[in-house]
User: Fold Ribosomal protein L11 methyltransferase from Affinibrenneria salicis.
Amino acid sequence: MPWIQLKINTTGSHAEQLGDALIESGAVSVTFQDTHDNPVFEPLPGETLLWGDTDVIGLYDAETDMHEVVAILSGEPLLGHGFRHKIEQLEDKDWEREWMDNFHPMRFGQRLWICPSWRDVPDPNAVNVMLDPGLAFGTGTHPTTAMCLEWLDGLDLAGKTIIDFGCGSGILAIAALKLGAARAIGIDIDPQAIQASRDNASRNGVSDRLELYLPRDQPADLSADVVVANILAGPLRELAPLISELPKSGAHLGLSGILASQASHVAAAYQDKFQLDPIVEKEEWCRITGVRR
Assistant:
């Protein structure tokens, strides 16, 4: 199906209001794009991170009368008559195929591969996790997920119990099970993530070894040999007293979802109860690991 794209440049402080105006004018979706291609970091729940010079991009059905759209937007106080904009026709592509073509099998560490279902497995003898991109966070493409997968690949997980705190798609718990863990427990505040984890576990044949809980339902006495939490710096600090009690004595802890500028503050929240390793950084994101004292 062909589409028309309307692009307007504005400032970060005006972008959300302008995005709402585009939706009201008939846009089926709105995206914010950094004019200078600065990194965009994952926001906290409910937070929208914007930047200085911002392009607000509305996507319209190709049958839309764009003269009428521009006339409607000219009445917006932020824009006014004759506002600068760019209208483009987008090539009519098989967008589902285009999207699928962007995902390839990815290797993490020495043994582990994450493979979309429509691709051939590169190494049948490797540890292969079949995982398709979906609504829940965690496909291996983000540096935080990649660092956690590499860390898990380097651990001896044989017979161990792992807790995936903030499990999202279930990728970390499922990878741990396929790397030899005997049992995995996934916890997430989002019921959609619980369902995604359940579906992915079934696809990988590990459903019988994965337990999934919303926080209100989780057992009070949970403990594990390995605990991984790939969420965000704020929750990691706030929930440090809870997360710190999940690993057994001598158990491994892995934390990610942390920007380099936040790493020291997160580490400080855990250093009393854990012997921490040197912080690992990848593309401005960090991973903190350690062993429970």
Observations:
- The first helix runs from residue 12 to 24.
- The longest strand covers residues 247-259.
- Residues 3-90 form a domain with the Alpha-Beta Plaits fold (CATH 3.30.70).
- The chain has two domains: 3-90, 101-292.
